[in-house]
Design a protein that fits this description.
Blueprint (H helix, E strand, L loop, with lengths): L2 E4 H11 L4 E4 L6 H7 L6 E4 L3 H13 L4 E6 H17 L5 E7 L13 H7 L3 E2 L4 H18 L3 E6 H4 L2 E4 L22 H22 L5 E4 L6 E4 L1 H11 L4 E5 L1 E3 L4 H9 L3 E4 L5 H8 L18 H7 L27 H10 L3 E3 L24 H13 L1 H4 L2 E6 H18 L4 E6 L28 H7 L7 E2 L4 H13 L4 E6 L14 E3 L18 E4 L2 E4 L19 E3 L3
Parallel strand pairs: 2-3, 2-4, 4-5, 5-7, 6-7, 10-11, 10-13, 14-15, 15-16, 16-18, 17-18
Antiparallel strand pairs: 1-8, 6-12, 9-11, 19-22, 20-21
Amino acid sequence: MKELMLGNKAVARGLYEAGCCVISSYPGTPSTEITEEAALYEDIYCEWAPNEKVALEVAHGASLGRRRSACAMKHVGLNVAADPLFTISYQGVNAGLVICVADDPGMHSSQNEQDSRHYAQAAKVPMLEPSDSAEARLFAMKAFELSEAFNTPVLLKMCTRVSHSQSVVEPGERTVPAQVPYVKDPTKVMMTANSRNAHVRVEQRTKDLIAYAEDCELNRVEMGDPSLGIITGSTSYQYAREVFGERASILKLGMSYPLPEKLIRDFAAKVDRVIVLEELDPIIENHCKQLGIPVEGKSLFPICGEFSQNLVRSCMGEELPQVMTIPDAIPGRPPVMCAGCPHRGIFYILKKLNCMVYGDIGCYTLGAVAPLNAMDLNVCMGASCSGLHGFNKAMGAEGEKRSVGVIGDSTFIHSGITGITDIAYNMSNSTIIILDNSITGMTGHQQNPTTGKNLRGEPAGKVDLEALCRALGFRRVPVVDPYDLAQVEAVIKEELAAEEPSIIISRRPCVMIKGTIHKAPLKVDQEKCVGCKSCMRIGCPAISVRNGKAVIDTTLCIGCQVCTQMCKLDALVSGEE
């Protein structure tokens, strides 16, 4: 029976139908739902790994262990998994191995806008790129076939628009192929002569894959008006089809690496003008130019940002459709931390103390925005720890007495542990604050090794953060309640003044965790409130000022009482009183 299906859900369905048995992933928007949806199938073992490198290594190990396997991550996660990826490309697989990676053009929830097709080229592994949910399901299945036929991992590239949109899918039945026996093979040990011989095999494999790409079902020609030919793929194909319809001929490339040669030359010969329509980098365009085919691409379309139908129309000089507009300017709605977020108090105190704050990746990155403005920079997962160490090695006591790194519990497990190990081993007097909110918050409340539950919410091993930090060499590991501003301020001052490195653990569960019991919303004593706006300094979205008085939105307030510590007039009172 056909059904509307989210792109990520369709990938999970394809993995299921193809007989995938093991999936190890790290959550990252826009890829997260692939693993969450796959976990609903009892026939697939699914797990959250500490990071993407581990996830790929687990999936590869399962492939060697005779089971079709997969992992999923966002584009920056592929950076973390790149180390094993390049060697696995040489080493090959046993049962099929599919690596799902989701790019984020437009950076809706990412710190950069990289194009994962570069990894397919660099690691010399095939990449498939669906343009809708139906293809997401089909390509996930085809990826396993390619993996086993060519003895290679296969990248399945999604993007935000395909991952998070719905289209019609017709599910099929699950088929588990016969297990491939594990056979000891000394040539899989990647060293010296073995690696050199493997590289030769990889180059031949690429030639074989190019031959496959010439007439495979993943690439297709849709002839229309020959005056304009468009070479495209992924979601850009949908824009081309919607904008031009039959007024153009289209070569849709579902296999974005390696790209065919004869197929592209033959298509170009049938049309008068060739346009390459692709988001981000000119991968297809450069390939066409290397083949000697005159094409237009980035001379027409931007290299930055996400495309849309109207962007394509505008760039091609097409008339834009008439749409209803609102003449009034709509005020911006920048993202903010939730009402009662446990991170808010930490950032308020860090701003008050005028600390240099080396940030990290998580919902707490919102500590950088007004009115807190408490974060100086961030780079990537775990960089707050190792980056702060380098900053303090350069600055000396001048930096050590006023700088901190902040990192979430999940991010700390992902890649912060090695950073604090560097601090302890190479002895910078650095202070790291672990923001332990008992969940992986930014990507939608996934479990992690510090929560004591696995992906399915079952009891699991739980990392003891205090014991781990002490085992790595930290003698100072205080724990604070971020709702207690006085305690937070006193502890941060004490640790910055100490003559040795320290870890501060800020522990309070995320207010959005299902089942969390909150206190009654606060109320404003209108007689005591003078409209000084001191309560506004923490940037809580539940507080506003109307007619010169503070107002509490009782639908948002969870009674954390952090704001009461800002009011010297005791105008904010518990709703229970």
